[in-house]
Design brief:
This protein is mainly β. It is 8% helix and 41% strand. The protein is elongated.
Length: 365
């Protein structure tokens, strides 16, 4: 307050001091990997104003404040997956305050094999492990039999590169790369026996996601160098077309293998009985725990328990893996496959969480 004679004038502090309140000229920016479990950072952006500016942060999920998330960094949690995450930066100085909001990120779920490590094999058309830096698949195109690795983009199969490579022709899998870190790739050198992933310039899909098609007559991908012991845990995403055929783990016979039936899928390890059938002729997330006694097996389909009635399915455990047939015989399965993972351990205490991760990607049930 300043007086001149009988007059009194009110002036703000910044007018007296010559200060200027904060003004944002470049918005804050979130950087880092937008994935569950990863830590992201928010910059202050660029501001003008005097005197010196201090900054406060508030992270938001779908526009609402996230609890005590008031630092410049934030670790993404399960609740953030597929939601809109922003950071509001408030700038304050002696002359006033103002806020600005960052760009929006939409986090994806944590990579499955980061959370549940130790898999023996991991084949998928999505990325399963952050430390894995290789390709998803190797593809042969029908036009000239040239081959090319197809990588991941933002955690998914690089479908743009796949289509560019295959053109208007077909694409066939020569190698499905193992993402577990054990280099247990599933391969097929014979052109006539390679499963398909592109049909006349169109990617084979199930429920909107790329899928590998076994024709039920010739096709298979195999690895014959496994060293497994019971129990193992198998998680796979398939969509059956045919009514017979095998896939999974084998020795000379079925040793942790799935059997296609007219109505669904069974599981078997060389014993006196097959498991009961999981009844579903559409896209299925199948989960099996191999047996150490013959009767302590577990089988699930789309989060539904297949009742164990004491059937002795056997205890044989495979040293070979075949994704679309039975090693050593035809028994080929006409079906699509999108993922096949084996842990050489009992993962049933983690089954629900693993299933949720898989289902959140493929939207099966």
């Amino acid at each position: 307050m300043i007086g001149y004679g009988n007059s009194v004038f009110l002036r703000t502090a910044w007018e007296v001091s010559g200060g200027v309140p904060p003004v944002n000229t470049v918005a804050p920016a979130i950087t880092g990997t937008a994935q569950e479990g990863q830590t992201v950072s928010c910059s202050t952006g660029t501001w003008t104003g005097t005197p010196t500016i201090t900054f406060a942060y508030q992270w938001k999920r779908n526009g609402s404040n996230i609890g005590s998330a008031t630092n410049s960094t934030y670790t993404l949690v399960t609740a953030d997956v597929s939601q809109s995450i922003t950071c509001q930066v408030t700038a304050t100085n002696g002359s006033g305050s103002a806020s600005a909001t960052s760009n929006t990120i939409t986090p994806i779920a944590a990579l499955l094999l980061d959370t549940y490590s130790g898999a023996a094999v991991g084949y998928s058309l999505r990325k399963l492990r952050t430390a894995y830096t290789g390709a998803a698949i190797r593809v042969r195109r029908s036009s000239d039999n040239a081959e090319q690795d197809i990588n991941f983009v933002s955690g998914d199969l690089d479908t743009s590169s796949l289509l560019t490579f295959c053109g208007a022709g077909n694409g066939f899998i020569t190698t499905w790369y193992d993402q577990s870190g054990n280099a247990n790739n599933a391969t097929q050198a014979t052109a006539a026996n390679q499963p398909r992933i592109v049909n006349a310039g169109v990617i084979d899909v199930v429920n909107g996601k790329p899928a590998v098609l076994g024709d039920g007559v010739n096709d298979t991908l195999r690895n014959t160098t496994l060293s497994l012991t019971n129990p193992t845990s198998i998680f796979t995403v398939v969509d059956k077309i045919g009514t017979s055929g095998n896939f999974g783990l084998f020795t000379a016979s079925l040793a942790g293998a799935f059997i296609l039936t007219a109505t669904g899928h069974q599981f078997y390890q060389g014993g006196a009985s097959f498991s009961p059938t999981y009844v579903n002729n559409n896209q299925s997330l199948l989960v099996a725990k191999t047996s150490t006694t013959g009767t302590d097996w577990e089988l699930y389909g789309n989060n539904t328990t297949v009742l164990n009635g004491g059937q002795n399915i056997g205890t044989a455990i495979g040293t070979s893996l075949s994704l679309f047939d039975r090693v050593g015989t035809s028994s080929r399965a006409n079906m699509y496959m999108q993922e096949f993972i084996v842990w050489n351990s009992d993962q049933m205490t983690n089954r629900t969480e693993i299933q949720n991760n898989i289902n959140s990607n493929y939207s099966i049930y």
